[in-house]
Amino acid sequence: MKVIKIQNRAVRKLLKEMAEVAGFLWQRGWAERNAGNISVNITGLADEKNLFTEDHPFFKLETEYPDLSGKVFLISITGSHMRDLARKPKRNVLLIRLNEKGNGYWMALAGKDNPTGTSPTSELPTHLGIHQMIAQNGGNEKTVLHTHVTELIALTQIKEYCNEKKLNRLFWTMHPETAIFVPDGVGFVPYSTPGSQDIADETLKALENHKVALWEKHGVFAIAPGPLEAFDLIDILAKSAKIFFLVRSAGYDPQGLTDEQLKILKALADKF
Ligand code: 2HA
Ligand code: ZN
Q1: What class has domain 149-272?
Q2: Residues 24, 122: Cα–Cα separation, whole Å
């Protein structure tokens, strides 16, 4: 397949940041085998018109994304491993550009062929659905990041915590930083088959009022302006869950912050 040499400085910087985050995910143990995927909207940074020509392979999409017409993305390759993306980002991401109608895309490699395959992540419907929602709302989030955070998945194995209100109370009361930096909390997505349109639709609902969607028994999706910011959101939530499990494992019930303490933190969050 055709390779597009990434020359734009801003895009190269983003690719480096994607690699840095991929390394963090692997080190945290949140990226077993080919777990996780990432996409970054680089429209406006890249030379859209000239990047793709008609002789790049074209693929039809099952869903239409009219708001993504002509938009260009860096997106991880299906089957690629985060530990490899960390070392060789160009080999583990693809460039795609949506057509006029937003119902198909041209695809190009960013580097050498990846032996695991040459199509975008299996979670493409969720990634595109989210980017479309951001475009409709005029949001500044360019990055969509999915990873299998052990502590957060573990929480959704407890029936009592498969509940948005309970989950967010836990996150906010286990660690003051979470109330400040993730003030909207997470949206909960009940279990659905990975890669399906169903899970994409449910994720969009969850992200209407949140920057993070927690997929029951699977992982998280976070949206943020850049890859590092998306990682930070997830990392803070993981910290809260970890504190909860540590205290429980020691045989105690965590005290949590009081309602009064939370109220003060929420007021602080509004100032950020
Ligand atoms: O990229 O994580 O949900 C592999 C996955 C699918
Ligand atoms: Zn996954």
Answers
A1: alpha beta
A2: 21
